[in-house]
Amino acid sequence: MINKEPTIKDVARLANVGITTVSRVLNNSGKVHEKTREKILRIIEEIGYVPNMNARFLSSKRSYSLSFVAPDVGTKFFGIMYTEMEKRLSLNNYRLIYFPLIDDFSLQMIKRKTDIIYHTDAVFLASIPVKNIFKDKIPTKKLILMDSKDERFDSVYVDNYKIGQMAAKYLLKNSDKNTEFYLITFKEFKNEFNSGVFEKRGQGFIDTIGKEKVKVFYGDLRWNGGYKACEKLFKTKKEKKIAVFTISDIIGYGAKIFFDKNEYIPNKDYNLISTDDLPQSKIIGLTTIRQPIAMMAKQACELFFSHLNGRKEVENIELESKLIKRES
Fold first, then answer.
1. CA distances (Å), 140 to each of 114, 145, 153, 289, in order?
2. 291 Cβ neighbours under 8 A, 6+ residues apart
3. Which of 5, 51, 205, 282 would disulfide-bridge 164, Cβ 3.0–4.6 Å?
């Protein structure tokens, strides 16, 4: 005897409802009583029914899948962003598929309008400079930008130049006339991947402090990158107070560990500020500028749903960053 795959008719029969009601539950559309919804979902789970995605697409013109493209799958920043989006989108039966843009091959692929990322209902692009990548060859699929801005597409972003200014003002407020200022940054590669985020933060910092007063040092964008940078910069304890802006919490984490290990006293020997407010920053007492990652994810999802509801005009939403004062 051949075991047949369960169908939507089987679900409807076992739940004692019509096929239309099952379809409404699957598509999260239309009014269905909560007890009926729970019963249908329980039966789907029990019999192992898997919706036919091709049929679903033909009936609704949607795949109920979305693409999320980001430069680095291993960065905590994008991990938080993805998790927040997945939570929100799943409430509407959407799956978010992560496509890490990690090499030139993947970059060249997304330039093609036939690439797999465009087989979903929309594409979210995080920290990716679309002006460099697409230029005049704009994909027909709905694009939503996160942590970057382009007037042609919906976007949610922060002003990274302002972040640099905010860091500078904090350190200036806590400095004296003999304080030495340092910028520990990461040298972004000059290619189509380069979003210029770190460069903008650094420029805002330098312009506010004064170019002649800031010593710039390049470190690795790793958890120990700031530690190694500080080992080279501060081989011996300085008599003057030092004020340090690290371009990212990933670098700032190592810098804070260095100062703690070498018994630098916050506000007396040094002040340190970073950017992002990743979870590790709170643990070690790192003063930082909070990026509104969760709000960025929320706004991007809302842009997608308003697009589904018929919005035609492009929206560019600038979010504000926030200074989070801690021990450093």
1. 11, 15, 11, 36
2. 77, 158, 275, 276, 277, 321
3. 205
In angstroms, the CA 155 to CA 12 distance is 41
> And the tokens for 202?
């650094």
Q: Output the pLDDT for position 246.
A: 97
Whether the Cβ atoms of residue 50 and residue 262 lie closer than 8 Å to each other: no
Block residue for tokens 């004692």:
16
Superfamily of domain 8-60: lambda repressor-like DNA-binding domains (1.10.260.40)
Q: What is the pLDDT of residues 52-108, one digit of tens each?
A: 655 555 555 667 889 998 886 556 788 889 999 999 998 888 889 888 877 777 777
Residues 233, 262: contact at Cβ < 8 Å? no
Same fold, 8-60 and 160-290: no
Other beta carbons within 10 angstroms of residue 127's beta carbon come to 22
Spell out the domain ranges in the chain.
Answer: 8-60, 65-158+293-319, 160-290
Structure tokens at 191: 């290619």
Note the maximum CA span of the chain.
Answer: 88
Provide CB contacts within 8 A for 48, sequence distance 6+.
6
Domain 65-158+293-319 CATH (choose: 3.10.290.10, 3.40.50.300, 3.40.50.2000, 3.40.50.2300): 3.40.50.2300
pLDDT of residue 211: 92
Q: Which CATH number fits domain 160-290: 1.10.150.120, 3.40.50.2300, 3.40.50.1100, 3.20.10.10?
A: 3.40.50.2300
Give dist(CA 218, CA 184) in Å, integer: 6
Cα dist from 79 to 82, 160, 278, 297, whole Å:
5, 20, 11, 11
CA-based radius of gyration for the chain: 25
